[in-house]
Design a protein that fits this description.
Shape: elongated
Oligomer: single chain
Mean pLDDT: 81
Strand content: under 5%
Distance between the termini: 88 Å
Length: 257
């Protein structure tokens, strides 16, 4: 067993060398065996076959003959070759047609993918520019507190695939936040004290899905930030969706501020 292992190890360089040669041969054969080279090779073979057969024929006659008897004789003599050629031509026609169809399909898919991606980029750019404009017009929202990329993909998670269907979770979260605001606002009118810190944590947590990163602030400051954030979200909702007033946060009559 040990001797056998040593012999194998001793032949490893030779085996590696042979493996590389076989690999190189296969690569050369793959490059050579193209449709163009195959057609040229078959035409060469056809010419040589006809020439050799014609020379070896016992009734060799130099000249051109187009009579019915000549053509019938040629057809009979080369019937196998003619059948083989017909089969190859038919096969080549099918291969060429299939290849053309595949190339057309690939071109269509590539053009479709490019168009979808370009639409994605254009829509996302428009969204970013709109958010930037709204932030510049606000007084209490900074650019660093909004992840616009996260906000966009929260609304359109399949945008890069050319699908601009609004994320159902966006609507659900929007309505969840609005219901919370209504409940909190109504509760704040009662005699029980309003828990501002708890409210701040709750709102900040929900707004994270929209890409907003709200830090802990004094009550007055947070109320100002919250108000502008809600206005921004409403502006985006009006612009990018067909939702009605029931989805707008600023429609809530807030009493806790």
């Amino acid at each position: 067993m040990g001797n056998f292992k040593k012999r194998i190890e001793g032949n490893l360089p030779w085996l590696q060398k042979m493996s590389n040669k076989v690999k190189a041969l296969l690569e050369w054969f793959t490059r050579f065996l193209t449709l163009k080279n195959f057609i040229l090779a078959y035409i060469t073979y056809m010419a040589l076959f006809l020439l050799v057969t014609y020379i070896k024929s016992d009734d060799l006659v130099i000249g051109v003959c187009f009579s019915e008897s000549c053509l019938s004789s040629l057809s009979e003599k080369y019937s196998t070759f003619i059948s083989l050629t017909e089969g190859i031509v038919t096969t080549l026609a099918i291969v060429i047609a299939a290849r053309s169809l595949k190339l057309s399909q690939d071109s269509f898919e590539q053009a479709k993918a490019n168009n979808e991606f370009n639409n994605h980029i254009a829509n996302k750019k428009f969204f970013n520019e709109f958010i930037d404009k709204e932030i510049k017009e606000s007084s209490y929202i900074s650019r660093s507190s909004v992840d616009i990329n996260k906000y966009y993909h929260f609304m359109f998670p399949l945008s890069s695939q050319g699908n601009f269907t609004l994320n159902k979770k966006y609507e659900d979260t929007l309505l969840l936040l609005k219901r919370y605001l209504i409940q909190t606002s109504n509760a704040s009118k009662k005699a029980t004290a309003f828990d501002f810190k708890k409210h701040q944590v709750k709102v900040a947590k929900i707004l994270k899905d929209f890409g907003f990163d709200l830090v802990n602030l004094p009550r007055r400051d947070f109320n100002l930030v919250e108000s502008e954030v809600f206005k921004l979200i409403d502006a985006v909702t009006i612009l990018m969706t067909s939702f009605e007033k029931k989805h707008l946060l600023c429609e809530v009559d807030i009493h806790y501020r």
